[in-house]
Amino acid sequence: MHPSRAEASSQPCFNGCFPSPILASERYHSATSKPRVNNVASSNDGFAAATSSTLPHTHFTNHESLPNVHDSYTSFTKAFPQFSTTSEVDQIRAQEYHHLNHSNTGFDYTGYGLFSYAQQQRCSPAIASSSSSSSSSLPCLTSDASFFDVSYKSVSLQSQALYGGHESELESRMRKRIMSFMNVSEAEYTLVFIANEVSAFKIVADSFQFQSKGQILTVYDHSSEALDVMIESCKKQGVHVLSAEFTWPSLRLEWRKLKKMIMNKRAKRKNGLFVFPLHSRVTGAPYSYVWMSMAQENGWRVLLDVCALKPKEMGTLGMSLFKPDFMVCSFYKVFGENPSGFGCLFVKKSSVSSLKDPGNATSIGIITLIPAFRQSHHDTEDVVTETETEQEVFAKLDGASSTSEIEELSISFDSSKDRNILGSTKNEGLEIDCRGLDHADSVGLLVINSRTKYLVNWLVNALMSLKHPHHENRLSLIRIYGPKVSSFRGPAIAFNIFDWKGEKVDPALVQKLADRNNISLSSSFLRNLRFSDKNEEETHWALETRASEVQGLGLSKKTRREESGIFVVTAALGLVTNFEDVYRLWAFLSRFLDADFVEKEKWRYMALNQNTIEV
C-alpha cells in the first residue's frame, strides 16, 4: 500500500536533508523496490569520481611502483582540498598521541577513547621528578596507571535501573561526562556501567521480559561474541531468533525481508527485541535510523548498538527523533596503548517496565568504578593520611563479600582520595579530565565525519588498484566486502587477499605478518549472506564453515554450532588516524603482489625465531 500524500508529507526527510551520512545512507522503501534517484545519489557519484583521481595510475602490479607517501598525499589533498580543514586532529595527535608515530599503526580499535597518551605519561616518575612546585602538591599517576579500577556488583539490571545505588564521586562525574559526550539526556535515560560489551548484551537478554513465543531480530552482517552470547541466552528462554540477511557480494541489506519480519503481526503482539547497529563495524555498511523507527511502530523494543559509531555521531538529529529502549557503547582508556575500559548500557527510564528480575541468576557484569592510584615516590609525603592507606583499603575491597561493604569502604576512600585522580585541586573536588573525549568535542562531528570519509575512501580506492601482473583478467590482489567508495560508508573495511592463482591467503596469516610489520589488524567472520540461486559455483567458492563456540557469562558449558560464512581481515579507522597510517597499510598489503612474499616472510620468521645455543 502506498502512503497517502498527507502521511508522506508528515514523514521526516532522510535523503539529503541532514549532513549525517547515516541518515542519508539507506532509502526507506515503503512500497516499491526501485530506489529513488535524488541529490544524495548524484553527490555520491561526484565523490567517487574525486576519489578515483587521487592515484595517478589505475592499476599497480608491483609494490615498488607505488608512488611515495609525499606524492600520494599531494594527489589526495588536490582531490580533497577540504581535508586541510581537519588539521586540528593532526595537531592533537602530535601533542597528545605522539607514541603512534613510534609504535604499531592501530586499525583494531572501535569505541571511544577516554584519555590521551600524553595525559597518561604526564606524571610518569621521570616527568614527576622535574615537575614544578606548583603541581607537586598533587599525587601523580605513574606511567602504568590505569586511571580507575572496576568492582563487580551483585545486582539485577532492573534494580539498578530503577533505584541506582550509591555513586562515588568518581562514578558520578564520569557518568555526567559520558552522558554529555554521547548527547544522552539524564532525564530520559539511566546509565549503567558494565564490564564490557559482551556483559551488556548478556544482561539485556537475561533481563528482558519476553512474552510467550517471544522473538529477537538482529541486523548484523558479521559474527559478534556479544551477539552470540545474547542469542544463546534467548534460545535457553525459548525465544525465536530471527536475523536480517545481506546480498552477496555487495552485502546490501535485504530490506524486503527485514521489513516483512519487522511488520510480522505475531511480533507486534509479542513485544519482541530488535537489536540494531547504525553501521557494520566490520564492513562499514551503513543502515538507516528508519529501521529503528519502523520497529518501534510495530511493537518491538529496540536495543541500539552504537559501539562502532564515530565520536560525536550520537549528536545527529536522528537520536532526537528515535529514542531506543536500550543503547550499548564501549569506552577504552588510551588509543593505541591501553584497550581496557568498560561498557555503558543506557536504559530508557520509560522502558524499565520491560525488564524482569532474573531472581537467583543475578546479572553478572554490572560494575562500579573505583579510583586507581600509583603514587610516584616524590609525592609520598603529600598523600592524604586521614583515612586508611590505599593498600589497606584495596585489600578490604578485594575481600568484601557484598555490594554494601564495597560501597561503605569506597565512601570513606572516595571522600579523601577521589579528588586527586586526574588533576584537580584539593579544594575543588574531583574533576574528570577525559582528554580523549575533550578532543572529540573540540573537533566536532562535521570535521570527524569529513576526515574519516576522505581517508577511508582513499584507502578503499588504493586497495582496489592493486592487481596481479601477467594475468589476462588482471586479477585483483584484494577483494573488498561490502560498500566500496561511498561518502556514506562507515570507517571500517572488510577484505581478503588473493594470490596470483586466485587462492585466498589465510586472514590469520595476514594478521600475523601485519603485526610483524607493526600494523595491527583484526579479523572477523561474515555471515547471514544471501547468494543468488543462479550462481551456485560462486556460492561454493566463497563460503566457508566455522565451528563457533559460545560460552556466555553464567552459561555452564560451551555450545558448539556450525555456520557458513567468510573469514575476512578488517581495518577500522579512528579519530586520530592520519594519511600516513592508511598509506602504510596500503604499502604493506601491496607486498603480497610479490608471489614469493609469504614464503619469504615464513622463512624470515623461522630464521629470527630459531633456537640459540648458549656458550
Any descriptors?
single chain, eight-stranded mixed β-sheet, disordered N terminus, 20 strands, 615 residues, Aspartate Aminotransferase, domain 2, 23 helices, alpha/beta, 17% strand
Can you identify the CATH class of the largest domain?
Alpha Beta
Main pleated sheet: 8 strands, mixed
Structural class: alpha/beta
What is the average per-residue confidence, as pLDDT, rounded to a whole number?
78
Give the full name of the CATH homologous superfamily of the largest domain: Type I PLP-dependent aspartate aminotransferase-like (Major domain)
**Quantity of strands, as a count:** 20
Number of self-contained structural domains = 2
Shape: globular
The assigned CATH architecture of the largest domain is: 3-Layer(aba) Sandwich
Proportion of beta-strand residues: 15-25%
Alpha-carbon distance between the two ends: 85 Å
Query: What's the Cα radius of gyration?
Result: 26 Å
Unreliable sequence segments = 1-38, 123-144, 374-391, 397-420, 422-428, 611-615
Task: Describe the protein.
A hairpin with a 3-residue loop joins strand 11 (326-334) and strand 12 (338-348). The protein has two domains: 43-107 and 444-527 and 568-608, Aspartate Aminotransferase, domain 1; 112-437, Type I PLP-dependent aspartate aminotransferase-like (Major domain) (Aspartate Aminotransferase, domain 2, 3-Layer(aba) Sandwich), CATH 3.40.640. The chain starts with a helix and ends in a 7-residue tail after the last helix. It is an alpha/beta fold and 615 residues long. 36% of the residues lie in helices and 17% in strands. Helix 10 (197-207) runs parallel beside helix 11, helix 16 (390-399) runs antiparallel to helix 17 and helix 19 packs parallel to helix 22. Residues 1-38, 123-144, 374-391, 397-420, 422-428 and 611-615 have low confidence and may be disordered. The protein is globular and about 65 Å long. It is built from 23 helices and 20 strands. The strands form five sheets. Strands 2, 4, 5, 6, 9, 10, 11 and 12 form an eight-stranded mixed sheet that branches.
